[in-house]
Amino acid sequence: MDNEMTLSFVAISENESLARMAITSFVAQLDPTIDELSEFKTIVSEAVSNAIIHGYDEDGKGIVTVHAVRDGDLVSVAVKDNGKGIFDVKKAMEPLFTSKAEMERSGMGFTIMESFADNLQVESEPNVGTVITFSKKFFSVKMPQIS
Asked: Could you tell me what reaction this enzyme catalyses (predicted)?
C-alpha cells in the first residue's frame, strides 16, 4: 500500500462534492487522464449519492464514510453507510430500477458505476447498511522529460 485515506461526513447532499474533491486530490499523484479522473469522480458521486438518498433518505443524521487505498496505480474505494440497506441487491443493480421514482431518479447509478470501475461489489443488509467497494487502475499521462 502506497497511501490511504478515510473521510467521514454527515449524509447531506452538499457533502457529495466534498467526497469528489477529496478523492480527486487522493488520486492526483497518479497523474490520471481527464477521462480516468472524470470516471472515478462519477463513481464516487454515485456511491455517495446512493448512501445519502437511499440509505438515509437525506435525513442529515447519518454518516457516510469513504475509505480509499492506493497501491501502485490501483485505487480501491469503499463507500459505507449504516442506513436502511438494500433488500434485494441484484434487483437494485438492474438498469433503470429505482426505489425513488417520485424523485425522478433514473435508476442508472449502479450501471454507471459498473461501467467506469474495473471491479464493483455491493454488500448490503436491510436495516444495517451498505458498502459499495470498487477499484480502478490508472494509466499515467506523464510527459517524457526532455534533457
From this structure: L-threonyl-[protein] + ATP = O-phospho-L-threonyl-[protein] + ADP + H(+); L-seryl-[protein] + ATP = O-phospho-L-seryl-[protein] + ADP + H(+)
Contact 28, 5 (CB under 8 A): no
Q: Confirm whether 105 is a catalytic residue.
A: yes
What are the structural domains, with CATH classification, of the chain?
A: 3-137 (3.30.565.10)
Distances (CA, A) of 93 to 50, 123, 144: 12, 12, 42
**Residue pLDDT, tens place only, 11-45:** 999 999 999 999 999 999 999 999 999 999 999 99
Confidence of residue 91 (pLDDT cuts 50, 70, 90): confident
Length of the chain as a residue count: 147
User: Which H/E stretch holds residue 80?
Assistant: strand 74-81
Burial classification of residue 145, based on how many CB atoms lie within 10 Å of its CB (0-12 exposed, 13-18 middle, 19 or more buried) = exposed
Could you tell me the pTM of the whole model? Answer: 0.89
Catalytic one of 36, 50, 70, 82? 50
The grid coordinates of residue 97 equal: 430500477
Catalytic position from the list 105, 114, 119, 125? 105
